[in-house]
Amino acid sequence: MNPWFAVLPLVLIITVLLAGGALALIRRRRRAGVRALLGLNGVLMAGALALLVSALNAAPATAGTGGAAATAVAAATDGSDSSGAALIGAAIAVAGSSIGAAIAVAYTGSAALAAMSERPEIFGRAMVVVGLAEGIAIYGLIISIILIGQA
């Protein structure tokens, strides 16, 4: 079992307790509570960075010592640096486009609901605008499929 998975529940419990303590501290002393939350965010960011570095530096797993499988794995991992970068690029493309689409749908959806409350007959046109905003996420998904295909 990977040691990261064994430690993860403990890290989550400690994070929730520390965040709750920081929020309680904000209610009493605002400045000290904000400093505590910023410190907690810094510790979590450092841990996430350490996890990312260890994941990027990890050697690929093999299924054993025997023959053809080990040769196929070795042949597939020759370009692992470029494939890892392509996969990270695909993740960034999906995450960025999804966040952008969420923001766009939030604004267009609220405007469409406000307009439909005054004139219900414009439902179709309002949903087209919301659908166009959701298209941003589809573009990111297409880019990620292209990147994964090249990896």
UniProtKB/TrEMBL annotation:
UniProt keyword annotation of Transferase present: no
GO terms assigned for molecular function: proton transmembrane transporter activity
CDD domains found in the cross-reference section: ATP-synt_Vo_Ao_c
Main location: membrane
Transmembrane segments: 6-26, 38-56, 87-114, 126-148
InterPro entries xrefs: ATP_synth_F0_csu, ATPase_proteolipid_c-like_dom, F/V-ATP_Csub_sf
Subcellular location per the Swiss-Prot or TrEMBL entry: Membrane
GO-annotated cellular components: proton-transporting ATP synthase complex; proton-transporting two-sector ATPase complex, proton-transporting domain
Family: Belongs to the ATPase C chain family.
Name of the molecule in the record: ATP synthase F(0) sector subunit c
Organism lineage: Bacteria, Bacillati, Actinomycetota, Actinomycetes, Micrococcales
